[in-house]
Amino acid sequence: MQRYFSSKLGLFEAALAETLRLDELLAAPRERIGEHIVALLADDKSEELGPLPMLLMAVADPVTRPVALQQLEASIMHPLAHWIGGPQGDILAARMSMLCSGFFTYTRLLPVKAFSNGIDQETLRLFARGIQKIVDEGITIDSDL
User: Fold this and answer.
1) Phi and psi (nearest 5°) for 72?
2) Residue ranges per structural domain of the chain
């Protein structure tokens, strides 16, 4: 481990960087990204929880917190803001991340009783529309300039 990562913290940083990837999340046409992301996040057949639990645990520890926050910005927020585009890309990326993290948290990590029999279609449509609106705002703001 020392030879390749220099420390446990270096190993953690490498592992986190490897899990924080947007390629699958953004692998749909912009005009359908909301539906695509909902399909991925609502897939309760997947046992994989992804990087969110790792991030939540890491920010609770004073040693790993700076690394986790730096990786979040470098691997998720900055690329997502660039993908959304426009002068408010960073704000729109933060909104999208907040929405997705909240959805994932209360359906997979801390599943609320209201969704114990599955997530209803209206909730899924609402979530998809929310994500799509954020992405479309980036297009509108950018094209208005």
Assistant:
1) -60, -45
2) 2-144
